[in-house]
Amino acid sequence: MLFSFCRLGFFLTNQSLFSHLSLKELGYIFWGGIQFDVASLIYINVIYILLQIIPFPFRYKEAYQKFCKWLFIITNSIGFMANFVDFVYYKYTLKRTTASIFSQFSNEQNKFKLVVDFALDYWLLVILLAVFIYFFVKFYDAITIQKAPKFNYKNYALHFFGLIFISGICVIGARGGWRHSTRPITLSNAGDFVKVSSDMSLVLNTPFSIIKTLENNDLKEVHYFDQQSLEKIYSPIHQPNVNGPFKKLNVVFLIIESLGKEHIGALNKDLLHGNYKGYTPFIDSLVANSFTSSRTYANGRKSIDALPSIISSIPSINEPFVLSTYSGNKTTSIAKILGDEGYETAFFHGAPNGSMGFSAYTNLAGIKKYYGKTEYNNDADFDGIWGIWDEPFMQYMAKTMNNFKQPFFSTFFSVSSHHPFKVPEKYQGKFKKGPLEVQEPIGYTDMSLRKFFATAAKMSWYKNTLFVLVADHATVSYLPEYQTTPGYFSVPILFYYPGGELKGNTEKLIQQIDIAPTVLGYLNYKKPFFSFGFNAFDTSKNNFVVNNNDGIFNFYKGDYLLQHNGQTAIGLYNLKSDRLTKKNLIGNDSVVQNNLEVEFKAFIQQYNNRMIKNKLTIK
Fold first, then answer.
1. Cα distances (angstroms) measured from residue 526 to each of 102, 514, 515, 521, 523
2. Domain boundaries in the chain?
3. What is the SS3 assignment for 483-522?
4. Distance, CA of 442 to CA of 257 (rounded, Å)
5. CA–CA dist 355, 336 (Å, integer)
6. What is the CATH number of domain 227-612?
7. Which neighbouring-strand residues pair with 250?
8. What residue ranges of the chain have pLDDT lower than 70?
């Protein structure tokens, strides 16, 4: 209740920034904020809760309870104070205070004076905080502790089960839900309750924002080049130079869980150890009728990295973008761009709604309709862990899209090729097994794709649709060619247009963040837009690929891979002559190394500085 009052105070002191919200929208935001308040209060009070639920009679002693009382009052008062600080501080930063506040002022020699000056400038706020805490203490004192009951084995057992039950409730509250697929909620989940990212701060509370960013590595501004030189080397602002009218094709993204390039026979004809069949006969047939490259990469290794890369052309650097302190930045996306052109936009994911934070991200990305397990509404097709099996859910998607007004933009994210790597009982033994457990369910998802395309091909919108098939990330590998840094990120990226000529295999580097600008280029989109990626059809650009693994940057350009730790280059490999990356050329080819470092630093300067300054759009 008191945290909700803090949210109300935050709203009232910053009302001009939220004046666009209706009463209904405010109510929904305040309702959503309870989830974050519960999580925050469990984090703040975890020691207090533990002290009060351990099943021993000394809990009833007066001195013990006095210690617990002041622990409770002090820790929660710090939480209240953090919320109150943002009543006035928010207007300067336009985001809730995060853990970066500690590093921001770590080098200040006059911290005490800064605190005193703040208190004097906002003396009324300090008085309100004192009154707030006074009533908080009074509320606590209204609770009386009973005398200790006589403890016997029944009481001990009862209190022990109470400990287990309360601990379980706390875990659920801290995670933000009880489902197996629910990740612990973080800053980006506030997007579930707002229409624009700038309103996420009203859903959140300051203690939650600080706690969730304690271990974050905030980006640092860098200035390797002056602005004019930087723009010449690399710019994420796209100024299309296209001829012909805008082609209002439907666009469908098919994001397949854990579909590493290793599993697709048609994309592995050049393996060093002979004929390789793979596990995806339908995708093999799709490759022959699609545009793709022999060098296609993911920008991350987690599902949570994939959507921002594919939809918004924002790669994850050091940590997933949606978990970072910058997740509330104003961004653009292909969904927003096409939505502004009159497209209907939708996202299909068979998991329980809210899983992986996808509903929050897609909402902020401008996708208007969300279809999950709730909308599917038939638990008979639930796999018991992650969501609706791919085959029935993809049929549901095809039939649902058949009711959309054209043109439309839809994204599908599969669930079945995921640990524990099961297939439906009726398909046991039907799909080829390999050395990796994931390969059997990948065969099932491949069949699901075949049936989806068979259904879609009968529908009027099919031949007017550009399909893009891509994996969210690669997974465990078996073949030696995929047990390398490039192999760890190798995924398929196919562009398939059944109503036109779009075929061929290039050697040009293509990554997930290139998908949106490539699609916009193919549609002859003429307006400027922001994207960290490249248009794969633009022959005037010799693009690069970037991904990050455990703090090490992998930068691909031409035939080379440069590995960099953020301070210095640590690896250089010629991928054409050294596919297994066994020969480190650092120090042996200074010209190539220097050229790659220049472009890598240009990317880092654009990425870091734009993230910090919230400049991820053209406006």
1. 44, 17, 17, 8, 9
2. 2-212, 227-612
3. CCHHHHCECCEEEECCCCCCCEEECCCEEHHHHHHHHHHH
4. 9
5. 22
6. 3.40.720.10
7. 465
8. 100, 103-111, 180-182, 197, 216-217, 272-274, 550
